[in-house]
Structures are given as structure tokens and as C-alpha cells.
Amino acid sequence: MLQHFLTIFIASALINNFVFTRYLGLCIFFGVTKRMETAIGMSFTFTAVMLVEAVLNWAIYNYVLIPYSLEFLKIVIFIGTVAAFVQAADTIMKKVAPALYYKLGIYLALIVTNCIILAVPLVMSDEKYNFFESVSMAIGSGLGFSMALIIMASIREKLDLADVPKSFQGLPISFVLTGLIALAFLGFSGMITL
Amino acid sequence: MSNNVSLGTLFKNGVFGENPVFRLALSLCPAVAVTSGVYNGFLMGIAVLFVMTMTNVTVSLLRNFINPKVRIPSYVFITATWVTVIDLVMSAYQRGMYKQMGLYIQLIVAFAIILSRAEMFASKNKLLPSFVDGVGMGAGFTLSLMLLGFFREILGKGSIWGIDILHAKPLLIAIMPTGGFFAMGLVMGGLNFLDRRFFGGTGASSGGH
Amino acid sequence: MKDMFKITMPLVAIFVVAGVIMVLTYQQTYPVRFQAEKTEKEEALKEMAPDATDPIKPAGTWAVNNKPYEYYQATASGKPVASIAETAGKGYSSYIKMLVSLGSDMKIKDVKVLDMNETPGLGDQVLEKGFLDQFKGKALSQIVLIKGETKENIQAVSGATYSSRGVTNGVKDAVQMLVEKYGAGVTAAAQEVTK
């Protein structure tokens, strides 16, 4: 049983890594990896929000939407909970932990436009995961995304020193780089057959 | 944006000047994910064009009705409604493709481009300009996706729109999952180069989200 | 208080109208989707046994990888013309789900891949006509994957060995099962061969 959760965890962190094999969250991925510090800040905030969101949406999906056969409303409901949660977290953090808010607050605002946060509950509902499966997937995806951010940030710090053709500076070369990392991640895909 | 801009200019602006993918660098995820062929890119583009136009139109119609304090939740909700509609329609009538693209269709709701057009354009403009802006931006998005799909399909499969043309696969990696990143980077860089060389632009698409 | 009302009322109105739009679309598309799902399966089965004139009937279930799969009997005016089995084989990154149809002479009529998630560009080359067509007319003893030239057996697609193996194993299991059920006395062939 434990092995099953571990499989889902590893699969969502490495094999189905959101950035490198599902191509999601690219906007944030390219946006925050210019500096290592922001990448790490984003990783923390993101993994935490992802976990809470997964639990919240899992409960709503299984206890409200399915019993009343309202599955077709899931897009509206999921985006609603994301927006509501981020707004609430923002307000509460400002009051309760101003120091933390000062550090991570800006990432919180960015999270609303991140498609991964929304993709986790969507994938979860498509695969009909149970509670613990959903949690392992959320943590796995969160750590997978963090890993992607940190790898990319450390490469981009070196990239500043490289002599890149003018037309390719900035986003284009970052895309090519991501392609190379993704190619390496392709190697993981044979590790577990889902 | 002033009101006396002609509709044609507005449309052109969406397709070229502020092309959502290559110039504004917004909504990059589907540009990489679903462009393994021209047809996929086309379908995805049409879905975005629909959501974009309908959201723009709705926001423009309701612009005097929505209180500015609650405008962002309202826009998100309007977008989510239209995404649900296109999602339901596509899953009924385009089943084969929907299996591959379903997740990305649903994720249109999180596209920055749609919310930003609603906020920056449709909420300040009349119905017709907002409609044209939506169609223009949507068309720009569709064309970008088809362009990427064209390069990837011709190089990776030797075909266009599913029709075999080259009878060979010159560059298999183009169609592989990672090919999307390379295609995106190279096309973006290429366009920057053309822009600098022939139009004297700065070609800077240095980032954004 | 009045201000509050002024802000929320339009919001509620939007929610209600949007809800109505979504429910209407759902009601319009639901029957279409339901019908499409049903005919999709029927059509896939029909393609597997084009000479069947009667509706294809389920004949039982069997297990691959501990998951239940169905098999069917296709008949033409009461006489059996083919048996069809759903099956799956372990490819590189996914289980490849297939339909296999076997004629009454215990030779394969057709193989069709229903669903898979192999690497695009590499593993999905097994979907191309050439590879799947090799199975047509083969008997159980001939279903052996060969990494090299072959006419007698099944030639693996280079660059997609794992996926080729997945398809071949899935087909072999299905044919074995159908042969045991409908035609006694034929056994499976040796393991895969590298030439």
C-alpha cells in the first residue's frame, strides 16, 4: 500500500513532472528563475499552497460535486477555491506573520495565474484518486516543480556569463535550455509503468 | 488605447504587433504542449479564440454593471463559464482530440492573456472594439500555435495537417515531447532576428508571465 | 449596507446567468457525448470483424495484469466468424490497450490500438500501419518479436523496441486465451529472438 503512494509520488515528481513532461506552469517557471532566491521562495510557497488546494478541492469534488452530479462545474469551482484561498492566505498572513508575508507575499499573488495549481485538482478528478493518492500527488508535483525551478535558476545564473546571440537572449535560449533538461527527464519515463 | 483606432488596426495589432505568444510571451504552456501538429494547434487556437472573444464581449457588455471592487473575481468567473462551455462542446464533438488536449482546454481558464485583455481592454471599450480585439488576439494565438505545429509536424513526421508530404522524418526530435521547447525557443529567436534585421525592432521578449 | 448590496447584487446576477448558460450547454452536449462513447466502442468492434452481420456480443471477461478485459463473439447469420478480445501489454511508459480479432481458422484478422501513452515520436511509431499490419494472418506460433528482418514473425520497430514488445505480448496473450477457448491444441511460440 505504502509502495503505491510512493509510486504516485515519484511518478508525479519525476516522470510526469509538470514543467518538463506536462509543460505547465511555464509562465511562472520562466518568470521566477532569473534569480535563485526568488526560485526558492516560490518553491516553498507553491508546495504549501498546492497541498492545501489539493485537499480542499478533493473534498469539494468528492463530497459536493459527485453526489449532486455537478462534475461539469469543476473548472469554475476549482478556480474559485484557488482564488478564494489565495486571497484569504494573503489577508491572514499579513496579520499573523508579517515577516513571512514580507518574504513570500509576492509569490502568493503570482500563484493565481499558475496553471499547475489548477491542474492538480483537474488531473486528480480525471484519475479518480482517493484522498491519500491525491495528497501524494500534490506533494510529489510540488516538489517536482520546486526541483525544476531550482535546476533552472542555477543554470540561468551561469547563463548570464555566457555569450548568447542577441536575438536569442532571454526567453528563446531559456526555452532551448528547458528542452535539454526535459530531454534528460524523458529518461525517467521508463522507470515506472503506470 | 484611444477610441479612434480603426478596427482593422486593432485586429492587426492582435495578430502581429502584440502577438500573445511571441511578443507578449503570455500563455506559453499550450504553445509547447499541444503543438505536435498543425491540426492540434488549430483546435487549441479555436478554443482560445472562442473563450477570448466571448469573455471580451461579456466583460464589455457588463462594464458599467460590475463594481470595480469585485471586477477580478467577476472576470475570472466569466472566463471560467466560457471555458466550461467550450470544454463540454469539444468533449462531445471532438472526442479523439479531446483525449489528448482535454487538460489544456480546461486550463485556458488560467491563461494570463484572457484576464489581461478583459482588464486592460474590454472593461474600458465598447462592444465592437472588444469583439474585434478578442478575435484579433485569438487569431494571433491560433496562428502562432499553427506556425509551431507546422515546423514540428513537417520536421518530426514529414506531414502537414496529417497528410504525408515528405515521406521521411528529417528530425524526429521535433515531434518528441521536448521538441516543443526547442521549436518555441528557435522560432522565437528567429522572429527576433528577423525583427531586428529587417524592421529595426528591439526584438526583446525578455520575459513575463 | 446599501453599498454592500450594490456590489454583490450584480455579482450574484452574473453567477446565476452563468450557471444557467453552463447547465444548458451541459444538457445539450450530454446526450451527444454519451451516444458518441457508445458508438465509438461498437464501431471499433465492427471494424475488427467487418464480415459479421449480427451484432457483436460479449462472451466473457478475462484478466491481464489483474485488470478485467472483455472478449466478444462475432457471428454472421448465426455462424461464428471471429472472436475479438480486449487486451493490454506493458510498453515503455504505459500499458498499451488493444483489440485483437481472431478468425475461425485461428489466425489473426486484425489488431487495433485503443489507448496508450508511449513517448511521442519514438514509442508511438508502433501505431504506424506497417507494424500492426504484420500481425494479420499470423497464427499463435508465429507471434514472436524479432529484432531484425523477418517475414515469418513480427519485426520490432527500431527505436520502439519496448513498445513493440508491449504490443506483441498483449496480442500473444489475447490470442493464447482465445485459442484455448475456441480452438484446442495450439501452443504459444518461443521467446523473442534477436537476429
Summarize the structure.
Chain B is mainly α and 209 residues long. In chain B, 65% of the residues lie in helices and 2% in strands.
Question: Can you put this structure into words, describing what you see?
Answer:
The complex is a heterotrimer of chains A (194), B (209) and C (195). Chain A is mostly helical and 194 residues long. Helices cover 75% and strands 0% of the residues of chain A. Chain A contains 8 helices and no strands. Chain A has helices at 2-15, 26-32, 36-65, 74-96, 98-111, 115-127, 131-159, 171-186. In chain A, α3 (36-65) packs across α4 (74-96), α3 crosses α5 and α4 packs across α6 (115-127). The longest helix of chain A is centred in the N-terminal third of the chain and has 30 residues, at 36-65. Chain A is globular, with a radius of gyration of 18 Å. Chain B contains 8 helices and 2 strands, in the order αααααααββα. Chain B has helices at 7-17, 28-33, 38-61, 71-93, 95-106, 112-120, 127-156, 179-199; strands spanning 159-160, 163-164. A two-stranded antiparallel sheet of chain B has the order 1-2. In chain B, α1 packs parallel to α7. The longest helix of chain B is centred in the C-terminal third of the chain and has 30 residues, at 127-156. Chain C is an alpha/beta fold and 195 residues long. Chain C has helices spanning 2-48, 129-133, 161-182, and strands at 57-64, 67-76, 79-90, 95-103, 108-115, 145-147, 154-155, 193-194. In chain C, the strands form 2 sheets. Chain C has a 5-stranded antiparallel beta sheet with strand order 1-2-3-4-5. In chain C, a hairpin with a 2-residue loop joins β1 (57-64) and β2. The longest helix of chain C is centred in the N-terminal third of the chain and has 47 residues, at 2-48. The mean pLDDT of chain C is 83. Classes of the chains: A mainly alpha (194), B mainly alpha (209), C alpha/beta (195). At the A-B interface, α2, α4, α6 and α8 of A face α2, α4, α5 and α8 of B.
The proportion of residues in beta strands of chain B is under 5%
How many H/I helical runs of chain C? 3
Portion of residues in helices of chain B?
A: 55-70%
Query: Can you give the helix content of chain C as a percent range?
Result: 25-40%
Q: Would you list the SSEs of chain C in sequence order as H and E? A: HEEEEEHEEHE
The major beta sheet of chain B can be summarized as: 2 strands, antiparallel
Which of globular, elongated, flat, extended, rod-shaped describes the shape of chain C?
elongated
Distance, first to last CA of chain B: 22 Å
Major beta-sheet overview of chain C: 5 strands, antiparallel
Would you list the SSEs of chain B in sequence order as H and E? HHHHHHHEEH
